[in-house]
Amino acid sequence: PKSKLPNVGTTIFSQMTQLANEHQAINLSQGFPDFPADAQLIALADEYMKKGFNQYAPLGGMLPLKERIAEKIENSHQAIYHPETEITITAGGTQAIFTTIATLVKEGDEVIIFEPAYDCYEPTVELFGGKVKRFKMKAPNYEIDWNIVKNLVTEKTKLIILNNPNNPSGKILREEDMQELIKIVKGTSIFILSDEVYENIVFDEKKHLSICKYPELKERSFLIASFGKLFHITGWKIGYCAAPKALTEEFRKVHQFNVFCVNTPLQLALADYMKDDSNYLYLSNFFQEKRDFLREGLRQTSFELLDCEGTYFQALKYDKISDKNDFDFAQELTIQHKVATIPFSSFYQDKMNENVIRLCFAKKTETLEKAIENLAKL
Ligand code: GLN
């Protein structure tokens, strides 16, 4: 058949993980923890399966889990979502993103995204006939110039996609950014998709500013989060979308024909496990230690450490080490130095190369130690 996505290949995450495996390299490319999830959570999953909760969930998700999510959002951001009508459990963050775009975007609609951008946004917009308008955030600070963003808005703008904290740059949005965004959408019918899957991984006492803290933004937003990042279970593929009732109704019309519903026993296990908020409130400290361990280890090398305010990704500029483009450099690092990373150019549609690579530090100390040892030889 004629490809609907002629410019898309296999994702860089799959490519680099495969290359890492082929060459027995330490895999700091695709973002996933190499340490186990909490045994208590696994035991809960086991228990619910044994108790017989093995049939379809309601299409919006299991009520206890939606209730715990509503409580988490209220406690963290003082925002109210009704569990029955405003929260939908999805098969991971990616499905929530896909379904939001499918719900909103029609042929000719324009969607604003910020690059470096997570790889699924643009192709999904394209699949539904949308046109992407991009603002490029650049190394080393990845700042947003909102005057330029304002000029990207036209009467065709349907959606703005945010990713806060940003994967891959680790940048978080400031109060000023949120205020500028409010000014831009005020009086328009623009929707917002806010991908906040790393919301609980923010460092140095900084605060994550969720879209839902701002009533003017919340009313037009689809807020997306992921249990994969929250509980070290990327393979469970469970996340959620919180959005006002009318938006959720439209979202669910698509969701029901996309996956219909999500794994029942795992939803129940997550609901129980979420009752204790210490099961996730430790995350920022936990990952900050790992970030600092990695940064300390690389300080003596010729890599330049860019800021990392959140997420479990550290960006490194390597222009003192090699003049190869980032894709070739990442290949060389994997094959010859046995450390797999992700080239930043994969997050820019025009493959802009700023000689920056991304390292995932959601890894055991011994994994990070070995990677540091290899990178220190460069
Ligand atoms: N979110 C993960 C990352 O950024 C990748 C997930 C995937 O492979 N699709 O590395």
TrEMBL record:
Gene3D superfamilies reported in the protein's UniProt record: Aspartate Aminotransferase, domain 1, Type I PLP-dependent aspartate aminotransferase-like (Major domain)
Domain Aminotransferase class I/classII large: 25-375
InterPro entries cross-referenced by the UniProt entry: Aminotransferase_I/II_large (IPR004839), Kynurenine-oxoglutarate_AT (IPR051326), PyrdxlP-dep_Trfase (IPR015424), PyrdxlP-dep_Trfase_major (IPR015421), PyrdxlP-dep_Trfase_small (IPR015422)
Keywords, sorted A to Z: Aminotransferase, Pyridoxal phosphate, Transferase
CDD domains: AAT_like
A GO term, aspect molecular function: transaminase activity
Cofactor: pyridoxal 5'-phosphate
DNA-binding found in the keyword field: no
Keyword Transferase: yes
Full protein name: Methionine aminotransferase
Organism encoding this protein: Chryseobacterium oryzae
